[in-house]
Design goal:
This protein is of the alpha+beta class. It contains six helices and 26 strands. The chain is globular and about 60 Å long.
Length: about 450
């Protein structure tokens, strides 16, 4: 394949030989390996390398998803760790690689003994995935995080740019990861000249500015109008449109304002093709656009862009919802007083100094770590968002602390305020399901 040179192909072959075959289940993968081994033995001409590379790549990608041992081994190869991480969490990336839609970049900059390299980019109308590598003369265990932005023609792109930084063990001097660029209004590629700006929290004065140019064709998204209602336990939802891009799919929805319950979260959304293969919610990165109270909001799903089915079934499961009469807890921060708490919202709440709250809640059944509130509304109708959350897990409860953003407020909140419940482990019992023919 175009992004695999001969040296890499040989390393894949050697790596595959080094991994115990019992870790590469299921049976189809074992058979593929056997076929490849026979071909490698029989043919010694150059053409064998092309065939072997294709088989290796398919086997390589499939094994990452089912074999942690293989994934860990492949992650040691230079430049491939971000791809391994993406494939393990999002099978749409598997199709991107199989269809050679990943573009190598290899643009780098070195400052003060640190080198940042953009290894490759996947780009579509919904945004980009930028893979990068960092080499440092300082131990990365001492780094706490980084800031990233992307520019186009000297201007910030009209998109959200997100990156994560996990704590590194001592003695780490190289790291590889991805940066997500997500454009809710669509990405502009009238110019394919971009710049990645990156700085570290521990060295904010040092800013890497790495230009890169996309040369490959950017594929257009495929749009399917749906405009169908569905009912789940008496709650009406509307699915308006499905937009499928190479990186991600976008399901545009709305919730009927007259519903008796407030929808808090869609825990499990699936798209099933005619072969019952599932394409679910994205497990890492951005979950969607907008708020559930908006006229239309979006939920992001895995992409099946390169194998559009004839028909799909959309299923909505594990819909987190509470009665609208239970959606607020009213408190007074000045008096540290709980004025009203719905009986069904079973938390042990404490009002602390500086607009901090702390509460105990039973462990979530799904073993998640999430805060109950994401904002409060003061007596004047002003909204103050939660900006920091701490979660400590104990044997029979979780202790959660939340802080609210007052730095950007023109005035202090006016008491009493309403803490808005944004997550609570109470679910609708039904499943929403519709079938759609794709033309």
């Amino acid at each position: 394949m175009s992004q695999l040179d001969k040296e890499q192909q040989q390393r894949y072959a050697e790596l595959l030989d080094s991994v115990p075959m019992e870790t590469l289940q299921p049976e189809a993968q074992l058979n593929a390996y056997k076929r490849f081994t026979k071909q490698r033995t029989r043919h010694k001409r150059l053409i064998r390398f092309t065939i072997a590379a294709s088989i290796l790549m398919i086997l390589f990608i499939g094994s990452i998803r089912v074999s942690p041992a293989f994934a860990n081994a492949v992650a040691q190869l230079p430049g491939l760790k971000p791809l391994v991480n993406m494939i393990a969490l999002d099978k749409g990336i598997e199709d991107i690689l199989n269809n050679e839609y990943y573009e190598e970049i290899n643009a780098s900059q070195t400052i003060d003994g640190k080198t940042v390299t953009i290894t490759g980019v996947v780009a579509d109308e919904s945004g980009m995935i930028i893979s990068y590598k960092l080499n440092s003369n300082e131990d990365l265990a001492n780094f706490s995080g980084m800031e990233t932005t992307v520019k186009q023609n000297g201007q910030l792109v009209n998109a959200s740019v997100g990156s994560s930084w996990t704590a590194k063990p001592e003695g780490t001097y190289e790291a590889e990861d991805t940066i997500d660029v997500v454009a809710s209004q669509g990405m502009d590629y009238s110019s394919k000249d971009f710049e990645l700006l990156l700085s570290f929290h521990d060295h904010p004065e040092t800013v890497f500015d790495i230009p890169f140019t996309l040369k490959n064709e950017v594929k257009e998204s495929k749009r399917y109008a749906i405009n169908k209602d569905l009912m789940v336990d008496g709650q009406r939802l509307t699915i308006h449109e499905l937009v499928i891009s190479p990186i991600r799919s976008e399901l545009k929805m709305s919730i009927d304002a007259s519903n008796s319950k407030k929808i808090l979260n869609f825990g499990d959304i699936r798209i099933l093709d005619e072969h019952q293969e599932e394409w679910g919610k994205i497990k890492n990165g951005y979950a969607g656009f907008g708020n559930y109270e908006d006229d239309i909001f979006s939920i992001l799903l895995e992409s099946n862009y390169f194998r559009i089915p004839e028909s799909i079934t959309i299923e909505l499961r594990e819909i987190e919802a509470i009665d609208k009469t239970d959606q607020f807890i009213v408190v007074d921060f000045d008096k540290k007083l709980i004025i009203n708490q719905p009986e069904k919202i079973n938390i042990e709440l404490e009002i602390k100094d500086n607009y901090e709250i702390q509460y105990k809640i039973e462990p979530y059944k799904k073993n998640e770590h999430k805060a109950v509130f994401d904002h409060f509304i003061d007596a004047k109708g002003n909204i103050f968002n939660s900006y920091s959350t701490s979660i400590s897990e104990y044997e029979d409860y979780m202790l959660i602390g939340e802080f609210f953003d007052l730095k950007n407020a023109e005035k202090l909140p006016v008491n009493p305020v309403k803490l808005a419940v944004s997550r609570y482990e109470e679910y609708l019992t039904g499943v929403g399901r519709i079938q759609v023919e794709l033309e």
